[in-house]
Amino acid sequence: MTRQLRRVVVTGMGAVCATGLDVPHFTAALLAGEVGIGPIVNIPTDRLSTRIAAEVRGLDPAAHFTAKRLPLLDRVAQLGMIAAREAMAQAGLAPGGCPLAAVVLGSGSGQHTLDDAYLRFYGQGAPRVHPFSVPRIMPNGPASHISMEFGIRGPVFAVSSACASANHAIGQAMQMIRWGMVDVAVSGGCDASIVPGFMKGWEALRVLSPDACRPFSLDRTGLVIGEGAGVLVLEALEHALSRGATPLMELAGFGMGADGVDVTAPDAEGAASTMKAALNDAGCSAAQIGYVNAHGTGTRLNDRTETAALRLVFGAGLDAVPVSSTKSMIGHCMTAGGALELIATAMALRDGWLPPTAGFTTADPDCDLDCVPNEARRADVEYAMSNAFAFGGLNAVLIARRWGEA
């Protein structure tokens, strides 16, 4: 007996990042090519060599959470919950409004709490740390708090696969809806890793840029760490339409795989294989893709390898496909990156605007792409691809389709 898979649509989106504290401000900044990267102001930098990041600024946690609840929340959970509230409000789903629901969230540890605990215990010799350190640090904290906020009692868990986490989470949530496990899923990712200890770890890898993130440019100097959250409400099409919800886009395909080659160096064959798997799952060809939101970190190796992988998938047809990196504006938001980039992709599909690769200067022969340099571009796109490739050789690719009844 063959089971008919259900179509999955997005009915709500929420975003918090360096260029906006909600989706309207985030997408407006994308259209303007606004760069949220600048001097670090939220943490001490006296022992850091890298002094820039894409920080979330102007956010007052006390304006969003009660004095009783705030002590339980690391910054990563705060960002995730704020984005989830926006997404659920747009979807028109009240707490307890959907019994058959899930939360699947890409998330790292509560780095602010962890960094503070280590400083106090090891650095300052304090005899104790914050009493809620464990629930604040645990990677499933944001997902758990979202489930409690909205009375969600279905599957709730965190996905931790480095920079592919959000795409992995969204893909898993999509499959759960397809197969009828749940009707609705709150999914995406959140990250708040701009703390001294984490930044020093990235400095040791020698991949951080001292000045800007310039993906695909010949003079690119590395990646820039960002923070934020992107949360989407995924829903079975028939469930969404039955309650009068308006789909924002359709999730058509998902592919995931591993390079199986190296912990830090990406592999073109592995990335290409995952893109092909996503296309196959969506039932569309590479020729139907009208836009690619690239992983595009701005490191020399990643951008060159991703370009080679795209060539393996699109062939000569790649010359006609716009490929841009929103990390040039919001930084590399780690476990949140894929979700924010999918929201940017939704803008391309729904509104007909392709986000640019900001800060582009000189073309690199090894990155022979139409990277939508510096200015947003009008385009009529039906299918788009959003890539996420992580350390550990972990790849996750989503295919989105402009909403239509067909």
Description:
With 406 residues, the protein is an alpha/beta fold. The chain folds into two domains: 235 residues, 3-Layer(aba) Sandwich (Peroxisomal Thiolase, Chain A, domain 1), CATH 3.40.47; 150 residues, Peroxisomal Thiolase, Chain A, domain 1 (3-Layer(aba) Sandwich). Helices cover 33% and strands 19% of the residues. It has a ten-stranded mixed sheet with strand order 5-4-6-7-1-8-14-13-9-10, with helices on both faces. It has a two-stranded antiparallel ribbon with strand order 2-3. Helix 10 links the parallel strand 9 and strand 10. The longest helix has 17 residues.
Distance between the amino and carboxyl termini: 25 Å
Helix-strand pattern: EHEEHEHHHEHEHEHEHEHEHHEEEE
SSE-based structural type: alpha/beta
The CATH homologous superfamily of the largest domain: Thiolase/Chalcone synthase
Gyration radius from CA atoms, angstroms: 20 Å
What is the CATH architecture assignment of the largest domain? 3-Layer(aba) Sandwich
Proportion of residues in extended strands: 15-25%
| Uncertain ranges | none
Helix content: 25-40%
**Silhouette:** globular
Query: How many structural domains are formed by the residues?
Result: 2
Main sheet record: 10 strands, mixed
- Text of the CATH class of the largest domain: Alpha Beta
- Spatial order of the strands forming the largest sheet: 5-4-6-7-1-8-14-13-9-10
Can you tell me the CATH topology of the largest domain? Answer: Peroxisomal Thiolase, Chain A, domain 1
Mean pLDDT: 96
